[in-house]
């Protein structure tokens, strides 16, 4: 009989354990289900619904992590009063966590109650020195135009978390609000030396160098941007500044690096490296059959020729005649016209070509100079003088060639008088 009682007792104990285990398993499964739904909704930016599931989780297991998640999602859903109610309840229950004060501050900022927000943040600082507290204090003081205090807190945040947004904000406050431009530039340069040329930081630095018209500073920044990211836009900016500084060799090197033949052609022209310009224009003409490049070939052939022999002149003229049959571009019309005028090949035709170019660009000092020289060549010196005076005095084109033309035309007028 005792044996049967023992068996019954054992069976009861085992069944009790089974019930208990089943309860634990069900609770665990429910918790997992809620957690899955909460995280899925949170990642899908359905913050209000996510908060409800975190709240259910908190009721099953009053874990501080779930409480914080409820508050976070309510704030993201802009359910500020509900979030604040959870924070106040947590404080009454004696839960100590800097995030409760931090999130309370965020809510008060949203409600534009900045003094309460500051009090909460200073309470948070007693519990933690997390950079986010300092950053939020910095933004509060910045909004209130207390730039010195804003700078102090942003610097404290940056000391822990030296990211690009913080250093850019610090530099911005120094440069625009505290009139400490050199310090702002030094702060950004120091950050870049230590952490590298992040796009945001380098572009902030570039904008400040641009305001100071510091071309060398801009060259330095865009070099670093291009070297790190290899983006053409940075190389093109760099080339512009190198041209401004007349550093054509470096500019050519970068134009070659990005394979920008149009820019390279311009650089050869600016540098007056007509031999290389001719070779590149020839290559582009062979690749594209675009008469624009044939016209440039002709110009560069003439300019690169040491001795302007009859053969060279006629070959250039032949190329340009071919170009203007297909493209009545004022550049080529004027160049061919001036060639005919200057070398006394066909002055009258040269004048007609220049006049056609002037119809398209009536105020071009170069085309007006060509016309004046054409009139001089056919003895219309008074007309030539009016035009060349306009070029020299009004349009301020005073290179050696224009000066030579002016002197010759004045001489002609004096002789006639």
Structure in words:
By secondary structure, the chain is mainly α. It has a domain at 272-320. Helices cover 82% and strands 0% of the residues. It has 23 helices and no strands. It has helices at 2-43, 47-60, 64-76, 80-92, 98-110, 114-127, 131-143, 147-160, 164-177, 181-195, 199-211, 215-229, 232-244, 248-257, 261-271, 274-288, 291-304, 310-326, 330-342, 347-360, 365-377, 381-394, 400-416. Helix 2 (47-60) packs antiparallel against helix 3 (64-76), helix 10 (181-195) runs antiparallel to helix 11 and helix 15 (261-271) packs antiparallel against helix 16 (274-288). The protein is elongated. The chain starts with a helix and ends with a helix. Mean pLDDT is 91; it is low at 1-24.
Low-confidence stretches: 1-24
How many β strands by DSSP? 0
Distance between the termini: 154 Å
- What is the helical fraction, as a range of percent? over 70%
Radius of gyration based on Cα positions = 39 Å
Query: What form results from the Cα inertia axes?
Result: elongated
